[in-house]
Amino acid sequence: MCGRTSCHLPRDVLARACAYRDRQGRERLPEWKDPDKYCPSYNTSPQSNSPVLLSRLHFEKGADPSERIIAPMRWGLVPSWFKEDDPSKLQFNTTNCRSDTIMEKRSFKVPLGKGRRCVVLADGFYEWRRRQGTSQKQPYFIYFPQAKTEESGSTDVAESSEHWRKVWDNWRLLTMAGIFDCWEPPEGGDLLYSYTIITVDSCKSLNDIHPRMPAILDGEEEVSKWLDFGEVSTQEALKLIHPTENITFHAVSSVVNDSGNNTPECVTPISLLVKKGGPQGGFWPDLEGSHRCGCRSADLPPWCEAAPMTTFLGFSFGLADSGVCMVNSDKAS
C-alpha cells in the first residue's frame, strides 16, 4: 500500500523536475493549475492535496494531448457519482487502488474508462515494517536511486543551503500511476479533483517491509504512455502496471509517524542498531534487520554519501563498501 509520501520541493523546482518533450520534440515544462493549492510537505497524508501530472486535454478541449499540467488534487478519490454533500462521508477507503481489482470496482473502473489517468509526484513514500519481537514498527523512506552530481562526492550534514538547493534541484521524482476523478457537490460549488494511487505486489527488495507497493512508472516513456489516454488504450496502459526493482530506501526516525510533523527529519537516514549480549554489551549493526537492497553508494542521495562515519540526529553511521546501507531506528532496542 502507500499511505504517506513526501513532496516538499518548491513549485518551480518541482516543475523543472517534470521537464518533458512534446510531440514536436520541444523541451517543455508543465504548467501549474491552481498552484496556490500546493503545500510542499515532507509528510503528506491522505485527504490532503498533492501534485499530480496529467494531460492538458483533460482541462482544454482540442489541446495538444502531449502537453502536461501539474495540478494539486485531494489524495483519496471521490467518485463523480457520489451523492453526499461532504466527501468525508465516503464510506470506503480510496487512498489506494489494487491493480488486481481495478476493473471490478466502480469507483476506479469508471474514471479509468474515461481516460482519467494521472502520475502522482513525490520525493518518495514511507512504509512501516514491524520490528521483530515487538509491536513497534520501523518507518522507511523509499525512492528512486539518485544519480550523483558534481557536488555530491563530499556531502556533509552541515552543508550550505546553496548545496542542498542543488541537491534537490537534481532530485529524480518518484512517479506513481494514479487515477483521478472530478466530483461536483450536489448543491453546487467548486469542482473537487481527487486521485488514488494504484498498488501492486511488492518487488523482492521491499517485500520484507510490506507486501504491497505503488505502481511506479520508471522513465519518460512509461510516464508518457500512461498520460496519453487518447493514443494508448486502457488495456495497453495497464501493461505498465507492475512491480519495479529500480528502487532504494533507508530507515528514518519515528518522527514521521505523526502526520503533523513536517520537517526534513522525516526523510533523514538514521542508524539501525540492536543491543547485543555479551560482556561488553555494545551496540552492533543488525544486518538481518537492516535493508539489503543491493544499492551502491551511487544509487543513494547525497545525504547517504558522506565519509565513513556521519552523524544524523545524534547518531553515527557509515556505509559499508559492500553497498549495504546500515540505517536505523531512533532508539536502539
TrEMBL record:
Which GO molecular function annotations are given, in alphabetical order? Answer: lyase activity; peptidase activity; single-stranded DNA binding
- Main localization (coarse): nucleus
| Catalytic activity, EC | 3.4.-.-
Q: Which InterPro entries match?
A: SRAP, SRAP-like
- Does the keyword Protease belong to this entry? yes
The protein's job, in short, is: Sensor of abasic sites in single-stranded DNA (ssDNA) required to preserve genome integrity by promoting error-free repair of abasic sites. Acts as an enzyme that recognizes and binds abasic sites in ssDNA at replication forks and chemically modifies the lesion by forming a covalent cross-link with DNA: forms a stable thiazolidine linkage between a ring-opened abasic site and the alpha-amino and sulfhydryl substituents of its N-terminal catalytic cysteine residue. The HMCES DNA-protein cross-link is then either reversed or degraded.
PANTHER family reported in the protein's UniProt record: ABASIC SITE PROCESSING PROTEIN HMCES, DC12-RELATED
The protein's name in its UniProt record: Abasic site processing protein HMCES
Upper lineage is:
Eukaryota, Metazoa, Chordata, Craniata, Vertebrata
